[in-house]
Amino acid sequence: MARNAGIQIGELARRSGCNVETVGGYRLYETAFARRARELGFTLEEVGTLMALSTHNVRSACAEVRQLAADHLAVVRAKIADLQTIEGVLADAVLRYDVDELPGCPLIKTLSEEVLPTAELPADAG
Question: pLDDT class for 1, splitting at 50, 70, 90?
Fold first, then answer.
């Protein structure tokens, strides 16, 4: 049975987000590379692309990696903006509980409103 630092290959594959064949074919530092990429939120497909590009030492590969990172950064920033909107709506509801501004339940009232008070939340928020 293949082992790496006391972890079975299957477990290492599960933890890194790679398949068993990928883990079996890469050294430990490459598996750590994949794990770190997943921690940054890259998809499995993007991790595969990054790993493939990491073996190239040419300027075109670097440009492709930069574009992948820029695209991912845009996704992360959009998620942050969505989370800030959600935070604002929830903070307002909690504040209304604290000041006892409304009779009843402020969050239920907020959820019942046709338009949310701070901004329209995205359809896939959360």
Answer: very low
Give yes or no: residues 51 and 92 share one domain. Answer: no
| Structural domain total, the chain | 2
The pLDDT value given to residue 40: 94
pLDDT 10s digits, 48-61: 888 888 877 677 78
Instruction: Convert 91-115 to b/e letters by CB count within 10 Å (16 or more is b).
Output: ebbeebeeeeeeeeebeeebeeeee
**SS3 (DSSP) at 43:** coil
Task: Say if residue 87 is in the same domain as residue 124.
Answer: yes
Model confidence, pTM: 0.59
User: What is the three-class DSSP state of 4?
Assistant: strand
